Amino acid sequence: MKLRFLGTGTSFGVPVIGCACDVCTSADPRDRRGRHAAVLESDDGARRVLVDTPPELRLQLLAAGIDSIDAVWYTHGHADHLHGIDDLRIFSVRNRQVAAFADPETADVMRARFGYIFGDYRPPEGTTKPEITLQTFRPGETVNVGGFDFRPLEVPHGDLSVYGFRTGSLGYVTDAKRLPAATRAELEGVRVLVLNALWFGNPHPTHFNVEEAVAAARDVGAERTYLTHLTHRLRHDSLAAALPPDIQPAYDGLEISIPE
Questions:
Q1: How far is Cα 101 from Cα 107, in angstroms, rounded to an integer?
Q2: Contact 76, 106 (CB under 8 A)
Q3: Is 201 helix (H, G, I), strand (E, B) or coil?
Q4: Distance CA 233, CA 210 (A)
Q5: Which one in 17, 56, 99, 162 has a CA-CA gap of 20 to 30 Å to 11?
Q6: What is the pLDDT of residue 92?
Q7: Cβ of 46: how many Cβ atoms within 10 Å?
Q8: What span, in angstroms and rounded, lies between the C-alpha atoms of 35 and 229?
Q9: For residues 162 and 173, what is the distance between their CA atoms, to the nearest angstrom?
């Protein structure tokens, strides 16, 4: 398998509008971070699962050269992870249904916000809407997502739950504040781990900071850990230099191989 990071920023993205800090004005392309998304792909390119649909989705798919998606895994219903959903419409133009997977709470949010997609609306003749088949999953139940077996990983994020996943030797968690015991057990033996991390110090009420993410990575013990969902307080080269060799910041466009 291959994992490509499409967007590694938080809800503000990087650069932040109106900010002239060192990271927002950096010439290093790794310091430009779209809102959160990733693509999991089979080695032969025949299967692709998109993780989240952020507002920049169209630009991210174009930059990555991705022209087909078999399924989408939604981690939760916050705007920076969901509100690019209309960019899935191009796949409907090509007469393809896209399977979307979400927990029941997120599925209800999607139906409420995007009634034109999930309700009875029929677009006028000659126009289109995203054709999405919405399916729900529950913790503890493995589900086939675009040809991959996904095990949902529930983590707390303020007053809601976020759902990462495990597939094979990959564990993927975003927007977490901690790894509950059940999720930690599901991550046993992963070789590649993805975790969110906002910044150094100043603990956040709903997200890991860098120190918390490093501690969680050490507890899991994966061979490689990549940090995503990064803010403009973290310059890529400085963060990479401050982290242990087996824990590194991801960046938009980074592609990694996932061992069997």
A1: 8
A2: yes
A3: coil
A4: 11
A5: 99
A6: 84
A7: 11
A8: 8
A9: 8
Q: Using omega within 30 degrees of 0 as the cis cutoff, is the peptide bond preceding 15 cis?
A: yes
Q: Which two tokens stand for residue 69?
A: 């998606």
* Beta-bridge partners for 50: 39, 72
Is beta strand 170-172 parallel, antiparallel or unpaired with respect to 160-167? antiparallel
3-class state of residue 213 by DSSP? helix
Contact 57/82 with Cβ under 8 angstroms? no
pLDDT tens across 195-247, in order? 999 999 999 999 999 999 999 999 999 999 999 999 999 999 999 999 999 99
Give CA–CA dist 22/235, Å, rounded.
8
Tokens of 84: 């690019």
**Distance, CA of 7 to CA of 52 (rounded, Å):** 10
Q: Report the greatest alpha carbon distance in the chain.
A: 57
Distance, in Å, from the CA atom of 199 to the CA atom of 211, rounded to the nearest integer, reads: 8
